[in-house]
Amino acid sequence: MLRFLLITFLLLMCLSSVQAKVCQKSENNITGDILTCKRVIQTLPKHSDDAFEATLELVILYRQAGDIKLADQALNALLKQDLSTLNKYKTTRQKGINAYHQREYIQSLSYFHDAQLLALKLADTSLIGKSANDLANGYQALGDLDTALMLLLESYQIAKQLNDIHRQAITLNNLGNVSRDIDQLDDAILSFRQAHLLHQQTGNISKANHTIISLAEVFFKKRQFDKAVSLIHDTLEPLKQSGSHAQVSRAYLLLAEIAIAQNNIQQAAQWLTAQSHTRQLIQTNHVDQRALLVGAKLKQLEGDHNTAQSLLKQGLNAHSQQNSQLTELFYIALIQSQLKANQFQDATATLQNYNSMLKNSRLQNESLYQFRLQRANILMSPKQESNIGLYVTVFSTIAFLLGVLISGIYFKKRRQRLSEANDSNTQLNQPNVRLLMVEVMTLALTIWEQTSGKTRIELAEQSKTWKVNIDDGRLRVRTFERYLNIKTLPKKPRWRNIVATANYVLQHCLVEHPLREKLQQKVHQLESVVLNIG
After folding, report:
1. Residue 469 pairs with which residues in a beta bridge?
2. DSSP helix/strand/coil, 498
3. Phi first, then psi: what are they for 385, rounded to 5°?
4. How many C-beta atoms surround the C-beta of residue 61 within 10 A?
5. Where is the MalT-like TPR region domain (predicted)?
6. Predicted structure pTM score
7. What local confidence, expressed as pLDDT, does residue 478 receive?
8. In angstroms, rounded to a whole number, what is the distance separating the alpha carbons of residues 251 and 217?
């Protein structure tokens, strides 16, 4: 009898294992996997652990296919159940991921912070690391790159401690995204390549292919078009075979951008058509802003400014809950198109709307700060269960200190790696070069303030080059201000930040200014000095 029970138990365990694997992605056909997973869920007892895990797998499959609406419906049904703390964490986290994919970043942060509280309650190091990574994605999307970097380094350190290769790969991929956004392209390439290798080691071919597309985007930014195109073509067919419509759409769009950069109108039009057909396979109510922007660029290249403006206005009308950085590019492109078409009155009106959008962006940043303060109060407020409050306080403190320590180590190593070729070179400390740096910063700030009517704090925030601190309830940019006077200029000035700030002003202050040409000359002069030194 005992032997019979043992055999029965083993058979049930095998069956449970098979069922858990049925819904996992086969790397070949996501649509087929979704249908299979739905059939399996119907055979499982309602509200059972197996049914819960299978539903989460179905949510992930929906999202990979681009069907965020169906994914949310499944998660909402789960949240109505009496879930354990662990299952609440899993469900809440997936809600955050869905919101992130819909570009609803503040909402995604809310879910991710709720999930973080549940992870701290469970005192699970692995889940705490996941939460750090999730939060980093949200803060990065909102432009808070310092916080994102700190959280990612914390997450990566935890993943290494746990020898979690899968989590290391995901975190490296996100570190690559941050490096790309701050134009540290070589660091981005290194992170993406390491992430790709780890994804291959874990057998996650889909994630590996996604990382290849990210790597191609970096080569596009470096204007190494042949490398970018080669990488995309290598992974395009596997993505299509697996039914990863969102990633295929992303690849086609990148190919179109490359063709536009090479003035290949016919090829760009073909890639945009392919992207449009692929996009129709994705169930989403959101307008693809990036596709509209690329389409407008193509029309501008063709000289069809009326159609370009129509596409740009369509994108601007759908900008709610979308990436404000992308929206900013829409305004700039629309103003340029109107100026080329001699529509000066329309360009002036668009410029006024653009300035209003920047003010709203500033309010969004303030909302983000308020959101973070509110969450901090939640973390520090007394709980009904004293043990939970203790976990929250201890782990929050440890996470902060660990993040600061890791960030310090990261930047120290990075400075050492770049010291021979860049900022530490003694020739950069020559009086004439230091004076040139101060001149560039002063000119850039003058043009910014006089043409936009905005402050140096707004320039630091919007250029994402300088850190903005809160001191006694006021926003301050102490590092930025040190670059405005030869006496306070750091011993090892960050010439890259200076050039980036000046270029940002030149790109975004479209109103003519008598000092604009002088600033361009000074920037060119500084770049020439640096290149000669390197």
Report:
1. 476
2. helix
3. -105, 110
4. 25
5. 138-366
6. 0.55
7. 83
8. 9
Classify residue 345 by burial, with Cβ atoms within 10 Å: 0-12, 13-18, 19+.
exposed
Rounded to an integer, what distance in angstroms lies between the CA atom of residue 364 and that of residue 458? 12
Helix H or strand E segment including 280:
none
Q: What is the pLDDT of residue 509?
A: 81
Q: Read off the pLDDT of residues 314-323 as tens digits, 9 standing for 90 and up.
A: 888 876 444 4
DSSP calls for 193-255: HHHHHHHHHTT-HHHHHHHHHHHHHHHHHTT-HHHHHHHHHHHHHHHHHHT-HHHHHHHHHHH
In this prediction, residues 381-392 reach a mean pLDDT of 44
**DSSP assignment of 166-186, as one string?**
HHHHHHHHHHHHHHHHTT-HH
Can you tell me the distance from the alpha carbon of 347 to that of 516, in angstroms, rounded to the nearest whole number?
A: 20
Q: Which CATH superfamily is domain 117-203 in?
A: Tetratricopeptide repeat domain (1.25.40.10)
The separation between the first and the last C-alpha atoms of the chain, rounded to the nearest angstrom, is 80
From the list 178, 263, 249, the residue with the least C-alpha distance to 218 is: 178
- 384: DSSP letter: S
492 touches 423 (CB < 8 A): yes
Q: What residue spans define the domains of the chain?
A: 14-97, 117-203, 418-533
- Residue 507: pLDDT over 90: no
Percent of the chain's residues with pLDDT above 70? 78
